[in-house]
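lol ok so funny story. i was supposed to be doing the assay writeup but got distracted and ended up predicting the structure for this chain instead. priorities right. anyway since i did it might as well share w the group, maybe its usefull for someone
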Amino acid sequence: MIEERKVILVDGISSIGIHNNIVRISFFRLNSQGQPEQVLELNIPVNQIKEIVAALMKISK
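and the output, tada:
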């Protein structure tokens, strides 16, 4: 089975929270009128956050 990969452009983060050891990050993008609209919620196990943040910091240099 071939998995379809979804690519979503985001303009920013609207909220971040932790509940039941899951980090939930909600992303938004600006619509054609310049208003933010929710496009994605990313759920990450809390024990994986350090590795993900380290990887993001590494590519941002």
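The chain has one domain: 12-59. The beta strands are 12-19, 22-30, 36-45.
back to the writeup now i swear
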